[in-house]
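Hi R.,

Here's the chain you asked about this morning:
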Amino acid sequence: MFYRRRYSSTCLQYRVGCAPDCSTPGPHCPPYSPDYAAIARAYGADGYEVDTLEEFREAAALARESRRPAVIDCHIAREENVWPMVAPGKGNDQMIYEGVPV
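And the predicted structure, written out as tokens:
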């Protein structure tokens, strides 16, 4: 999914008609990201949207305190490394923990 910045399996902007060799979204791509927090609320759960670590901490505390089902939609930059990561073809027991204190 991440080979040479080809996000074909993860791109939420992909549409029929996109160039098959597209390796990154550009100004020609339609903006799109589902509102997962709104979807959660529509199903009766609590939904939070966060952009920063501090917002995440606040949303996580609220979610724990509510003792209800919750979705925390974390907006993360496309190129941000999110650890741990599982490399293609590897199992969950072979996670990469680079930069993460374990």
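The helical segments are 36-42, 53-66.

Let me know if you need anything else.
M.
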